[in-house]
Design goal:
Structural class: alpha+beta
Number of strands: 15
Number of helices: 12
Order of helices and strands: EHHEEEEHEHEEHHHEHHEEEHEHEEH
Number of domains: 2
Mean pLDDT: 92
Shape: globular
CATH superfamily of the largest domain: Gcn5-related N-acetyltransferase (GNAT)
Distance between the termini: 60 Å
Helix content: 25-40%
Strand content: 25-35%
Length: 385
């Protein structure tokens, strides 16, 4: 099934919303390829977004996607032109990435759509680029590009985790206790003990923001708790990214009424112990970001309690999956099961700078490898000279 792809600036695609929403009703797509996501992204970088329209030999639309054209300055000296798939940002700033990153295609067109897009990005009509970045993509996507003999650089790898809410209901689980029964004995014990300790401060409640104004208020509290935790570790958290915070506020402004974004707050008495911001799409609840109150008492687990209550709530509401998405946080795998691995990688043109950068990276890896081998040899009594 021979396909062709063209890249057009967002503003040059006629009736884009109608085209996109009609196609997503017929195609498989994650939330991050929905019109809701693109609509908010366009509010933060419409001039940088290029829409990929993929058609079969009959001229029928069979695939959609989009790139954001950015420039990243590396090592403080070298600008690198990037096309980033389904993520938005500003030149030189942190971006807002997608997850489960791929193309939106009709059934049976996945490989053909990628081949067509590959031809399009190497055509003269494509915006100039030094590398194409795919964040939180399935490993099979990189395998496809590697098979085309293209230079690829894997930058990061993440596991993912999820809770199968539908299976819990089939097994008869109801409420928080029903969910806890499906966890390991140790995890169940930690959460129950935490709940008992929190109940000494007052009854535990889970509240859902009911208006955009309340959602913004919850998000502000969440951001404060999130950053307090990361500052205590000597680092900056996700909510220190102004672009990311602004993106979520725009999502509230534009799509809160349709239930696409939700803010939950768990309290013990009047004290907020945890807040989560989720996306909700076609029965899938996607954990976006959370903020949890710190405590000197290591017996309390604010994150686990908050997430367990949110999971039980969505289980009772009839949703299908509670997805923690990408991230290596240990608690996610205590509360759910492992999902697909995701990676960030770049397809790179062999520019002089990228070749030099790759050589420096290889040399560094060799030095690190040797520094680990020599102490091991000395420990075993071998002469390394």
């Amino acid at each position: 099934m021979k396909c062709t792809a063209v890249l057009k600036p967002l503003g040059e695609v006629d009736n884009l919303e109608a085209l996109w929403t009609d196609f997503e009703r017929r195609a498989f797509r994650p939330f991050f390829l929905s019109w809701n996501w693109l609509d908010v992204a366009a509010c933060h970088g419409a001039d940088q977004i290029f829409i990929a329209l993929i058609s079969n030999s009959a001229g029928d639309l069979v695939g959609l996607g989009w790139f954001c054209a950015l420039e990243e300055v590396r090592h403080s000296i070298m600008p690198v032109k990037q096309l980033r798939l389904h993520e938005v940002g500003e030149d030189g700033a942190a971006t807002v990435p997608a997850e489960f990153n791929s193309l939106m295609t009709l059934q049976g067109y996945d490989t053909d759509a990628w081949e067509a897009l590959l031809a399009a990005v190497f055509s003269s009509d494509c915006p100039p680029w030094d590398e194409i970045v795919l964040t939180n993509a399935y490993t099979k996507v990189q395998d496809f590009f590697a098979a085309q003999k293209l230079r690829t650089h894997r930058r990061a790898e993440h596991m993912s985790a999820f809770v199968n809410l539908e299976k819990l209901r089939v097994d008869g689980a109801v409420g928080i206790e029903g969910y806890l029964q499906h966890l390991s004995r140790n995890t169940r014990s930690q959460i129950r003990r935490s709940i008992r300790l929190y109940e000494e401060r007052g009854p535990i409640t889970l509240d859902r923001a009911s208006t955009p104004r309340e959602a913004h208020k919850y998000l502000t509290t969440l951001a404060c708790l999130h950053e307090e935790k990361w500052r205590a570790r000597g680092s900056a958290g996700l909510m220190s990214n102004e672009q990311y915070l602004a993106f979520n506020r725009t999502m509230i402004d534009r799509h809160f009424a349709s239930g696409v974004i939700e803010l939950l707050c768990v309290r013990a008495g009047n004290e907020a112990i945890g807040l989560v911001c989720n996306f909700v799409d076609r029965g899938r609840v996607l954990f976006n970001v959370g903020g949890f109150a710190s405590s000197s008492d290591n017996r309390v687990k604010p994150g686990m309690v908050t997430q367990a209550l949110a999971i039980a709530d969505h289980m009772d509401r009839g949703n299908i999956v509670y997805d923690f998405m990408a991230g290596n946080d240990r608690y996610k795998y205590s509360l759910g099961e492992r999902g697909p691995d995701m990676i960030q990688f770049a397809i790179q043109k062999p520019t002089p700078f990228i070749i030099l950068e790759a050589a420096a990276r290889f040399a560094k890896q060799k030095i690190v490898s040797l520094s680990r081998i020599e102490p091991a040899l000395e420990k075993n009594g071998e002469n390394t000279t």
